[in-house]
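Good morning C.,

I know you're traveling, so I'll keep this short. The sequence:
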Amino acid sequence: MIGRLNHVAIAVPDLAAATATYGNALGAKVSAPIPQPEHGVTVVFVELPNTKIELLHPLGDNSPIKGFLERNPSGGIHHVCYEVADIYAARDRLKAEGARVLGDGEPKIGAHDKPVLFLHPKDFYGTLIELEQA
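The tokens, ready to paste straight into the viewer:
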């Protein structure tokens, strides 16, 4: 059902420093910071030959990343994103298997302008999973 790894999202307390580390020290191609107010984050996309890294920083007081960084002040992996061919079929199959879809269960448009869903980390060994329709 799942396809390739689309990205790994890392919450960072200092977006400029994280961007410099990936761009300068590691030599990766990084985007400019992109505010995503509908998701409560500012994101920098790090392009790799085989996948992407998303650097996430809180945007606004209700940011889900703000709470994550309060619990993990140094930052850390927030979620992993896998591609699926049909997000509705994937959702229905996962729910039938007992997995919990976060929110209202309906796909939302994610940072890459494609439908996404998040799956409860307790159902996936402590890892927040994002599914993105390819």
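Safe travels,
E.
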